[in-house]
């Protein structure tokens, strides 16, 4: 009888549960709380949380054939892989991030950026956060956490607040860190309304936060179409390594603005991006196995992620203040923080903080300029890192 019970026990997953799994269950609970009750990036955090939960349960038929975090999981006896072996190919073959960018492009209005080109500088300034954290990551070796230059590049892009770009670059430079980098990027993107406001208030006066900007001019359809084609060509010529992301971003945007392929544009905005988002999030989550996730190296990435967001936010604000020294038409420095991407949440934060200083001030459309500029800027920086370290 005892042998029978012992045999049954051995054939359940109970004996495989360890403390790392229990910790990761708490992490999953935290992600679900942020997604469901705080409504922070729920479209991604829910699939990531479920993938992470699955990664920390004793499963069969899930990860066979996968290779991540330096571990290879053998194929099944019949030579086939587990469920996520096939789903994960979307990341491994670099399909999901560019497809997400197709949808992002179809959802994005570049009009505010075209109407006020100066705001491109705010998106560019936010990239200082990326380079700042690259240096910080390199110096982590002095406290016992060492990253290679490839890993430093992959980690620092978190400051761009662009999840697909973070995953795309991590897969190129540090595939074993995809889980930690993606979770850090998306979690902190979800926490933009929490992280940014204290920094914005600390770096600006009430008078600066109350600056009212001139209304944006109307941008014609032709301008938007020419912008999409020319900027795509220019960016790809400058940084060919970022071609997959930039091509799909501007293809989606051209379909949106041309007005003759509404069916394709709506598909990119809805069905395509939604389906890929589910698989992307779940694939990222499945790499969050507690055995590999709960390490000093991963915890260092989470700390650097916060620093990246803070530096990127501050850089955008400082650039806006610098422009105000030489410009007649003043810029509200709050929109500089939107250069971290996180479209459109960062722009909404600028709007909310601006209205606290002046309830009649509307900054949302002004903030969309640096917001979308940040998407382009982060993709270019990712391409730069791929060129240098890839």
Automatic annotation (TrEMBL):
Q: Which organism is it from?
A: Coraliomargarita sinensis
Task: Say which domain of life the source belongs to.
Answer: Bacteria
Q: Name one Pfam family in it.
A: OAD_beta
Transmembrane spans? 19-36, 43-63, 83-107, 119-140, 177-204, 225-252, 272-294, 301-320, 372-389
Subcellular localization is given as: Cell membrane
Any GO BP: sodium ion transport
Whether Transmembrane helix counts among this entry's keywords is yes
Q: What is this protein called?
A: Glutaconyl-CoA decarboxylase subunit beta
Any one of the GO CC terms: plasma membrane
Keyword terms of this UniProt record: Cell membrane, Ion transport, Membrane, Sodium, Sodium transport, Translocase, Transmembrane, Transmembrane helix, Transport
Q: What is its membrane topology?
A: Multi-pass membrane protein
- Any one GO molecular function term: lyase activity
